[in-house]
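Practice problem 4.
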């Protein structure tokens, strides 16, 4: 589990300055989406620089870079924008949303696997954590998104939405990054 004390303190400090000007909010949002997209893709081996990622998100192709790298950036941004609505409405995570995000991330990259759980076993190089066997993924995902009977809330909601990309890999393509952290 994560200690979010420092994050809570920073949010409280930001809240002291609310309401923020709409232009400031839009600028912060654009910067966050750009940074998140760049770093997420870079971790997975995408060679676009931060500036190239910004240009790709503006719809311009970069010479010497693959179309896949462009689609990875565009699709990641689109998945972020898609997930903002349920997050803003504090809706619990459900399987349909996970699969929709997965489809968005793999759009124009891997149509055969988009929106589907992986059917092969995977390992994460250099990690002690072992993702579940492929046959276990649907059941494990179900237990993570089925609402708790007492609260009606799903195990993954609120603050945990940004951490969907961390661990158990319900997909085959290492670049697709839509999964749930079981730790």
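Answer key:
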């Amino acid at each position: 589990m994560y200690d979010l004390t420092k994050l809570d303190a920073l949010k409280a400090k930001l809240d002291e300055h609310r309401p923020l000007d709409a232009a400031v909010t839009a600028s912060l949002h654009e910067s966050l989406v750009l940074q998140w997209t760049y770093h997420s893709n870079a971790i997975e081996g995408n060679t676009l620089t931060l500036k190239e990622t910004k240009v790709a998100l503006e719809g311009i192709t970069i010479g010497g870079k693959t179309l896949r790298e462009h689609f990875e950036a565009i699709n990641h941004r689109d998945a972020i924008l898609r997930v903002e609505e349920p997050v803003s409405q504090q809706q619990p995570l459900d399987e349909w949303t996970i699969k929709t995000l997965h489809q968005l991330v793999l759009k124009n990259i891997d149509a055969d696997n988009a929106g589907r759980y992986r059917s092969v076993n995977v390992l994460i190089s250099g990690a002690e954590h072992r993702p579940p066997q492929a046959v276990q993924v649907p059941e494990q995902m179900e237990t993570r998104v089925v609402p708790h009977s007492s609260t009606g809330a799903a195990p993954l909601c609120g603050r945990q939405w940004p951490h969907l990309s961390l661990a158990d890999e319900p997909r085959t393509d290492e670049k697709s990054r839509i999964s749930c952290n079981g730790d």
